[in-house]
Amino acid sequence: MGNLEARRDWGYAGDYVRAMWMMLQQSEPDDYGVATGETRSVREWLEECFGHLGLDYRDYVVVDPEFLRPAEVDQLIGDPSKARRKLGWQPEVSFRQLAHMMTDADLELVRSQTRR
Question: How confident is residue 73, by pLDDT bands cut at 50, 70 and 90?
Fold first, then answer.
């Protein structure tokens, strides 16, 4: 892995698709920021995903300087206030739920491959 302290606005694609559908229902086109408005670090992501399996990410994840970006953006966060105000949109899947959903999906993929 690279920089575990990089902070990102993690969101569920299904929530974003719902926001896009809501945009298309408007009588006039407009620009909206679709995001959670919250940031979490890559380290927090690893803690949540591995913790969901009862594991400590530090026993499995190695930080490799090769994956550190020379021009790393420390924090990426979106502003969903207009989408919330004008569309009534807000994300329904939390950071924790998203991490668990993705971990479970990856685990199921591994299990299905080992059954072959």
Answer: confident
Handedness of CA 57, 44, 54, 114 (dihedral sign): negative
Topology of domain 7-114, CATH = Rossmann fold (3.40.50)
| Residue 18: both structure tokens together | 């719902």
Compare 68 and 83 and report the one with higher pLDDT.
83
Contacts of 39 (CB under 8 A, 6+ apart): 7, 8, 9, 75, 76, 77
This model's pTM is above 0.85: yes
Domain ranges of the chain: 7-114
